[in-house]
C-alpha cells in the first residue's frame, strides 16, 4: 500500500517535468543557429561556433580549389575533422604542401599565409584562437 501512495505523486511529478521540458525544447527550437558567413565564390565557408571575450572557435569548410586570401593569422589550434592537404603560400613566395589526417590537432604560430585546398576532397576543420584580455 505504501508503494501505491508514492506512485501517484511520483507519476504526477514526472508528468509535470515532461510537460515543462517539452515547452523548453520548443523554445530552444526557435533559437537561431550559428551565423554562417557567406563566402565569395572560391572562398571557404566559416561558421562561428563560439565568439566571446576569451576565445573564438570557428568551423571552416574548404571545397577543393577554395582559397583563403593572404593575411595575418593569429596563433591558433587547428583540429582537422576531415583529412586532406593545403598549399600554403608565404609573402616571400615560398610554398609548402601541408598534408593532414582526420582527427589530427596541431598548433600554428602567428603567420601571414594564403591557404588553398589543392586536394581532391572537401576539408573541414575547427580553429580555436584565444583572445588576450
Globally, the shape reads: globular
Largest sheet: 5 strands, antiparallel
What letter string, H or E per element, gives the SSE order?
Answer: HEEEEEEEEE
Distance between the termini: 63 Å
Oligomeric form: single chain
Q: What is the CA-based Rg, rounded?
A: 23 Å
What would the average pLDDT be, to the nearest integer?
Answer: 80
Unreliably modeled segments = 1-31
- Structural class based on helices, strands and sheet pairing: alpha+beta
Q: Number of DSSP helices?
A: 1
**Helix content, binned percent:** 10-25%
Query: Could you give the count of β-strands?
Result: 9
Strand residue content:
35-45%
Major sheet: order of its strands?
Answer: 1-2-9-4-7
Tell me what you see in this structure.
There is one protein chain. By secondary structure, this protein is of the alpha+beta class. The protein is built from one helix and nine strands. It has one helix spanning 2-29, and strands at 45-51, 55-62, 67-73, 76-80, 84-89, 95-100, 105-108, 111-117, 123-130. The protein has a five-stranded antiparallel sheet with strand order 1-2-9-4-7, with no helix packed on it. Strands 3-8-5-6 form a four-stranded antiparallel sheet, with no helix packed on it. Strand 5 and strand 6 form a beta hairpin. The radius of gyration is 23 Å and the shape is globular. Residues 1-31 have low confidence and may be disordered.
Structural descriptors:
133 residues, alpha+beta, four-stranded antiparallel beta sheet, 9 strands, 21% helix, globular
Amino acid at each position: 500500500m505504501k508503494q501505491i501512495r508514492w506512485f501517484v505523486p511520483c507519476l504526477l511529478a514526472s508528468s509535470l517535468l515532461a510537460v515543462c521540458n517539452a515547452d523548453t525544447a520548443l523554445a530552444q527550437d526557435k533559437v537561431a543557429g550559428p551565423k554562417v558567413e557567406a563566402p565569395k565564390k572560391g572562398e571557404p565557408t566559416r561558421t562561428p561556433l563560439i565568439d566571446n571575450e576569451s576565445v573564438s572557435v570557428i568551423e571552416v569548410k574548404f571545397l577543393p580549389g577554395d582559397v583563403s586570401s593572404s593575411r595575418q593569422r593569429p596563433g591558433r589550434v587547428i583540429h582537422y575533422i576531415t583529412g586532406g592537404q593545403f598549399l600554403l603560400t608565404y609573402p616571400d613566395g615560398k610554398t609548402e604542401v601541408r598534408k593532414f589526417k582526420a582527427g589530427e590537432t596541431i598548433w600554428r604560430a602567428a603567420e601571414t599565409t594564403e591557404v588553398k585546398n589543392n586536394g581532391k576532397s572537401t576539408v573541414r576543420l575547427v580553429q580555436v584562437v584565444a583572445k588576450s584580455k
